[in-house]
Predict the structure.
Amino acid sequence: MGEPAGARDAGGGAIVTEDHRISRRTALITLSALGVAAAGGLAAMPGTAWAQALGQNESVEDAMKRLFGGKPMRDGAASVKLDVPLIAENGAVVPISVSVDSPMTPTNYVKHIYVVADKNRIPVVTRVTLSPEAGRAFMGANIRLGESGDVRAIVEQSDGSLLAVKREVKVTVGGCGG
Amino acid sequence: MSDIGKVRLRVPSSIKAGDVVQVRALVIHPMERIERDAQGKIVQKNYNYINKVIVTYLGKTVATFDTTQNVAENPFFTFTFKATDPGQLKVQFLDTTGGRYEGIADIKFS
């Protein structure tokens, strides 16, 4: 008599566990779906707004004024290294990298690196936001250049000071189409 | 064009704890450029290009790129991060049509 009862008990126990497992899985799926949806909404909206504000058809002077106001800029040649080819054969793909000497500690780090191409119709190419966890102030990307002209890198440090470097790039074939 | 949104991350093969690691992230994307009509006026439409790249490591944002159409087709971005603990490095690309592409690399120490 004892044996069947025990078996039934075990069976009952297994069913309970199964139930529990399913409900937990459903709960997890629901939770993660909610999380993804929330993150998506948060990340996508300011991103779009920013890019539209960032990339405007304007002169480089206007762009600089809009981004930095009238803040003074120091020459950053000593600490900022802008690496871009002197002659870009194909303006559609120009590799560029910017690295900055910075301790990258929570109190003293590079907050933003801007890349601006003077002769492009939309001068602002990219704005990189870094956090101290990056370890090193560095960014690299492939950009487009419409025609020969200066390429600038503007570095904003955590204390708000700005460093600027620029270099002229000769472009053989423009890469911005319109 | 079916390749749009393919993400490749290139992480060094051996990483030690505390290293500053340089990563290259590549995404296949057309990055539409601005079109102009015969008069030189910009054609108004929603251009499909990547406008944000978010790099997270262990759930914390390490770097964000806000980009415009001046970034080349099939763009690659290089960035660094400080490898403190084993965990997940995630790079997300967002484009103007609501597309969302991501690449994940597991950071392990050797």
